[in-house]
Amino acid sequence: MKKEKWLFIGKDPRIKKSAILIDTHEREIMHIESGEWTLELEDLCRNMQPNCIVFPIQPLDAVKDIDYTCIPKETVMFFGRVAGPWKSVSELFTSYFYLQDEQFIWQNAKLTAEGWVAAFYKLNQQSISGKTFHITGFGRVAKMLANILKSMGAKVFIFVRSEANACEAKAYGYDAAILTPQRFAKEPISWLLNTIPAPWFTEDYLKLSTKEMILYDLASAPGCLREVDLKDRYELMPGIPGEYFADDAAVLLSDTINQLYNLEKE
């Protein structure tokens, strides 16, 4: 029986561990630790002729124009996010987006929230109980963050961009308000956790923030800053699950890929 050929690409530790977990007697697995699409990868695809390619959550940098002809037309691709040229490439193949799988999204959000707590302890060596944390956005990651912080005795304030989200946050029992510079200025913010995947933090917000404020950006790169330099008061923290819980994150990713692939084969 001819083995399936799987190619995993990415520097995130969960990618390497997922490649190990997904290995079976029917599969030939290769992992390339790279954050870029290179000529070497194109040569590898021509020689390997992979049946499946698994990409990391963040799109690979394209150091050259992508020559998709090096990849067999029948190849099944698994993406996290797609942007730039990768969006066009994904449309040429049978592509699945594990970051759109509801189970993956919620479990990944849970790992992100727990991982941020670990990062907070490591970076600050302070207790969470009794402190006030301001969170921007109220999506899945924000909900998990708010829940875990509240359960640990912290006070949580939610900034959102719509009245509907503000009402939802209040229904969960949190103080909440629409995110505007004027409303932002009324809050004495020490710990700001951003989950909004857009560059909203402008010079106006910088002028209104306290000197003690530290911004932890959990949104995907490039984060929330817009032509602003917070220097040592800013931490861009994408990929927390892979950094703090590589084994658990790999199990989640490999299980999701297997489920999506089994749907493809049915």
UniProtKB/TrEMBL annotation:
Entries under Pfam families matching the protein: 2-Hacid_dh_C
InterPro entries reported for this sequence: D-isomer_DH_NAD-bd, NAD(P)-bd_dom_sf
Protein name in the entry: NAD(P)-dependent oxidoreductase
Domain of life of the native organism: Bacteria
Domain named D-isomer specific 2-hydroxyacid dehydrogenase NAD-binding: residues: 107-175
